[in-house]
Amino acid sequence: MQIASLSEIKKELKEKTNHELTELVLKLTKHKVENKELLAYVLFESADENHFISKIESEIDLQFAHVNIKSNYIINKNIRKIQRYIVKQIRFSKQKETEIALRIHFCKNLVDIQSKYDINNTRHQMLIRQIELIRKALKLVHEDLQFDHELELTELLEQVAH
């Protein structure tokens, strides 16, 4: 079975009535949880990106607070789960400012975990990768935002150095 191209789907959607479009969207949301999450973001969260960021940051804090500390393996596994959650939220938003804010917040929590428990090479590599991704995204935002986030990144790097 060959999948239709995006342009073909777009043409077909233009021919549908509002009621048919609503039914299609509801069908998509019932099919997969991620579709429902994306639709919820688009409908309810995208209008106020700052509120969305603060909501996700508080969820990140909550997830870090519940990290299981039985072993380094379990800690790293929990952190990777948090990281996947953040990547999904960044994909929903598609805004570089949101990406930078969420990644910096993740890194701050990761540094706190590093300071509380044994220094672990896996977590250190995660931190380095996140910093690289932040720097990459920083190049694509406005200069004023670059400066603000660069200050946050510098503070973060100072914490890592200690």
Query: Radius of gyration over alpha carbons?
Result: 19 Å
**Number of domain modules:** 1
**Low-pLDDT residue spans:** none
Number of strands: 0
Query: Which percent range describes the beta-strand content?
Result: under 5%
What is the mean predicted local confidence, pLDDT? 91
Count of separate DSSP helical elements: 8
Largest sheet: none
Order of helices and strands: HHHHHHHH
Shape: elongated
Quote the distance from N terminus to C terminus.
Answer: 57 Å
Derived from helix and strand composition plus strand pairing, the structural class reads mainly alpha
Can you walk through the features of this model?
The protein has one domain. The chain is mainly alpha-helical. The relative contact order is 0.08. 82% of the residues lie in helices and 0% in strands. It has helices at 6-14, 18-31, 33-45, 49-65, 72-93, 96-116, 121-138, 143-161.
Main features:
162 residues, 0% strand, 82% helix, mainly alpha, 8 helices
